[in-house]
Every structure is written in C-alpha cells, then in structure tokens.
Prior knowledge:
Shape: flat
Strand content: 25-35%
Oligomer: single chain
Distance between the termini: 79 Å
Mean pLDDT: 77
Number of helices: 19
Number of domains: 5
Structural class: alpha+beta
Low-confidence stretches: 180-213, 370-381, 414-430, 589-597
Strand order of the largest sheet: 5-4-1-2-6-9-8
Helix content: 25-40%
Largest sheet: 7 strands, antiparallel
Amino acid sequence: MDVLIITHADFVMTISFKEEGGEKEFRKIYDCIKAKYKGGSFSTKYIFSDPDLLQEFSLCDLSEKLPVNKDIDRDNCPVLFENKKYRIRIEFLADIKRPYIFSRDKSLTDAFDYRMVGGITPFLFTDITFRNDIGYIDFNINYTRGTIDKTVVFKARVFSEKFDIDNGLPIITRDIELFYPRLILDHIKKTYHHFDIVPGEYNNLTWWVIFENTYKKLITDFEFIIEKPHRKQGPYKVLKRRDKIYNPTAYLAEKIKRYAGEADKYFLVWGQKDLEDNYENQVVKFILKDILHKFKKIYELVKGHSAGKRMTIDYKDQLDFVYGALQSLLNHSFFQSVRDINEIKRTSHVLTMRSGYADLLRDWEKLNMGYKLFEGVLELELKDIAYLYQIWCFFGMIDLIKSLGGEIVEIVKVPFILPDQFILYPDKDMNSKILFKFGDGTMVELYHELLYSDKFDKDNAGSLTGSVRPDIVLRVKKNDLQDTPFITYLFDVKYKLDESVKGDMRQVHHYRDAIHNKNQYTNLLSKEVKGAYIIHPGKEKPGNQRNLDLIDAGLFSFIPGEDMENSMLRNHLAKIIYEGGITLLKDVPPQKGKSYQSDESFVLIHFIRKDNAAEIHYFEDTYASLLCHKSFIRAVGNNSLRYVAINIEGKGIKYMYEILDYNWKSRRQVYPPDHELFVDNGRKHLVLRIGNKKVFEERLQIKGTVSSSRYTKMAYINNPVNGFIKTVPKEKLS
C-alpha cells in the first residue's frame, strides 16, 4: 500500500506500507494512534528542499483507496509509525547518474540498494522498520544531472503507537533529567529530536557516554570465548612416514619413490584438524584491537579536556584497569595463533547465534554507539524510547510511593554529574536504589535493574538459571514480619500495547521461578518473589484485577501524562504497603523458608548467666541448632510458642531463634560427648530444634532483676519502649 508519493522533475519517491493486512491494517493502526493524540496534535509537516522542481505531493487518504494530492506546506496526516515496516523506492530519470543516499546514520545510508530498470533507469530502494525510533528522520538524495551534482533533502516525522509523544515525551525526558542528568542523550540514530524537547541548557561539550556494564560485559565475553572457542576444520602441514601416507599426489608419489630405500624418511603433507584460526575468531581479535585502539584514543582526549581533569580518582583508576584488562587479553596465547583481518566483511551463524560470540558482537555495537556520540552530534538524539519509558516508569513508581506517604530516606547508586555536565557512572552494577520509610515503620526499597546472579550476593538472594535483571524490583519490610527481611515484587517494563504484551508474562514468571533466597547457614533455597507484573503504556482493563488478586501476576497501565490517582498500579502499591505482612502472605508458602510471625506468638526468653561462657558462645557466636529446657512447655505442642530469645545476664537480648521442632529426651542424648554443652545426665529435658537466627540492631532489656527464663509476645518484641519489652506470666501461654 503506497502511503506517500513525491514526484520531482528528476525522480519519483514512493513510500509503501509493507505490514501484512495492507490497507486494512494501516487504517486500524492509524485510527488507534490518532485516538491517543489530544487537541488536534495528530498532524505533521513534510519537508522537501527542492519545492521549485516538486511536481506533485500525494499522501494516503483513508477515504480514498489511492494517495491524493496534498499541499506539502500545510500540516498533513502522519503515515510513518514506529515498529512498522515500510519500503522506500526512488526511481530516477534515465539520464541521472551516480544516485546515492546520505544520512547521518550509517546503517540507513548503507541500507539503500542500487538497481537499474531495463538497463537504463536507475533506482534506489530499501525496506526499513523504525522499531522504537520516534522523532524526525531525514536523508539526502544525491545524484548527478548532466554535469551538475544535486542534493535534495527529505524530512518526515515518525509517530509513536503507544502514546501522544507531543505531551508524553517531554514528561518522560523532564522526569528522567531530575535524577539522571544527560542520561537521555544517545548516539546517532535514524531519528532525532529538536533541542526544545529537552529541559535544561546544553553547551558544546561533547558527551562521552560509556556504561561501565558494557566494559565489564565485553571482558566477560572475551574470556568466555577464550575458554570455549569455536574451532573449524582447516588444512595444516604435518610430517608423516611413507607408510602413513594414503592417496598421495603425483608429485608426492614420485618423491616417495625416490626415497624408497629409506624406511624412516618423513614427508611434508597436508592434513585436516580443528583450528582456532578461523574467520569467527579473527573477527573476535579484530573487535578486541578495535576496542583497544578507540579506548586509548578517546581516553587520552578525555584526560586532556577540562572535564577530564575533574574526573574522580576512582573513575580514572577504573578506566586504567579496564584498559589493562583488555591489553592482557590481546596478549593471550589464543590470539597469538589467530591471524589479523582489516574489516568485518560478513556475519555467520556462529557470530549471530553462538554464546559468547553473539554477545560480543551485540555489546561491541553498543560500545560503538558511544564512540559515535563522542565523534560529534549533529542533532540531539534521545535513547531508544523503550529504554526511556523503562527509566521513566521507575521514577513514576517513586512518585506513586511518595504519594502514598513514603518518605525518601536514602538514594544510592544514582549516576552523578560533575561541572560541565560530564557524565560519570560510579556504580559497578549500574542499578539505583531508593529507600522509603512509612509512619508505621514499613520500609520500602525500590531498585532499577537490580542484578540477581548465581553468587546470591543480594541479601542472600540470587538466580538459579544464570544472571537475571528485572527492570524494577520492589522490596517491602513489614513491621509485623521481623524475621522475614523483605517481601519482593518484580515489575518488567514493556513498551508494548496490551495486545502484544501478554506473551511477555512468561518472562516475569521465569524471573519469579528463578530468583531464590539461600540461607547463609544451611544453604537451603526458598522462593524470593511474591508478585511479578508487567508495566506497559496500553489502556487499563478491569479484568486484570482478578489476576492480581488471585495469583499476584498481571498487567499495569502506566501512560505519561495520565492521572494515576485511582489507577490499578497505585491501588496495588497501596495494598502492598498498607496491609500487614501476615495478611499479604496468608495464602502464600512462606518466603525464605520461614513461618510468619504473628504478634500473638509467644517467645521463650532463655536466661544465661554471665559466667556461663560456653553457652554464651554457643548461642551468640555460632548458628545454634539445639536448646535444652528443664521442663516441658505445653505451648510448644500447640504451636503458640514459636520463638526463643537469648537473654545474657547484664547484657540483654541480642539474638532470637525460631522453634522448628521439639523432642523429649535425656540430657546426655542432646549433644555429642565432645560438644562444649554436653552433660552426662539421664534426666529428661525439652529439646528444641531451633534455626533462622535473627540479630537485633539494639539489645532489648527486661525491667527488674532477672535470674531465670521468662516469656513474652512478638508484639512486645516488635514494639519495645525505650529498649525495654514487657513479659507475660507462664499461665498466659495457651
């Protein structure tokens, strides 16, 4: 379906919509996008730099089946939309020579193919998908007419199908700028935006935007390839005795014949074996040398710039370390056996699909984007709108939590900016964390791109299926769940409409199944995540609420500029934050392998005299597993006595354990003979199996003189008054 035709004196340019469904699909998309734009903003101007030779300008009119004539100087209907496929075809007159396309984006320039019609008429064409590139696109149509070189510029606007970019994009960029100054800038792309879309002032300093994660990931890619390189059958020369040579060439047969009397004579022959010196590994070496060359060149320029002189010492040290690590990789014996190439002429299945190689190629392309940015920006480009939307959702979540009463008490690992807006990213994981506190003591942690790895280094949480990095992680610490550090919720941001986002639910379910908590003492694994959701810019559907209530999974709508006061997302955050932890988890298997504390659960306060060094050491300095009590306590049997707090004479209570099981056995059967608490006594004792040790930030105290065990409730443990807790008589234990 043709959506735009420009007839010029020297050529005809046609832009066609190539999605399946043709006119019907275009109409559906057009109407859907138009409905999102407010106040008549759903129009655009098309710029053509040679109006004197413009003969006709036609656009798709939905009331007609063919494009109709329009005035190019007036506002017209948009026909270019993100994530849709188009074909651009430019057919020239027969006497036109050397036609070619130029664009600031090399990929767009290279995309155009040159052909001849009937051997006399030249034309250029390409298929293009704007993916998540919204904004303006322009390119130069260059050619020679007779002896005159000509250039004609065409410019058009690519519209978003997700929301009104005239209103939504300024909101996104403004909100991100508040926390991540200049993060919105990106490399040269197919589309760009005018400077007035971005708040703040920009000087002529060229931004050097290089993410630490890119460098770390590149080194990991190289190391993975060196450890598991691709090998390919190739020829090599080897010495063999004549009795080991089969099917010799005529020349070699004659040579063997000449040495017929020498049985131990060896001959040089060609053989086949798996070689590391193949095209794929030559590409890897080329990439490594390219990175080293550009890194050194740019780093020297940065250090000589006034902004470079204001870099922190830690950041300089980090860059020096990266360069040293890359240089040592090039000196590895693996690359010594691999020949050099001057350019990457083609791709291959290994380079695009094999682990390590595909990752390296993708990360190298990302890095090149940063270098292109350093080399000069002709217009202001923004990062991929999908990534900007993801970051904006993170800051939108901050505003929603604040609107629910959360007070920000800590901001950590957010990129900071030095004078002249020179961007530095000091955090190794490139994730940010915002800590909120509520009036009832509830603590909320909000993370952007928190990495869970198989090292289980995020508060003993990690992934069983390799590293995963959800877009947004919400962790809530409830006052009534003191022994359960956090309840965790995941939010993955998808820049998609609800019709296409449902398949992505498998990804968040994978996150929920993969992320576990590992007990630091027993190494036992338990589920970490309670809820997993998708945030997207589509419209809200009431039916999603049922999934949220039943299985803690579903879709949330989050659209820039929309009122979120009564949104499903804000209401669900309110439920997570305001409801008690026990209520939230009543239908869920215990998080982190624990049972949840009720304020009405009883606690045995086990008293230890200050001169009992062995028992103090066992309960305070080790992960104790057994505790002896001289008499049986009925409350253990009916499960109302759930915990044991360790009270040291003169010091107070610092540690508490959960009661996991109990038994009734003689004292000598409790600990082995070589244990420090072994007593050779046949008297029966109540033996409590304990675990899930908890450490209080401050020691708790009991008023009065204490010389024996006491009892209390979790309500008093959770709410001490000036460091003191109430006790309850044994008779109150049910």
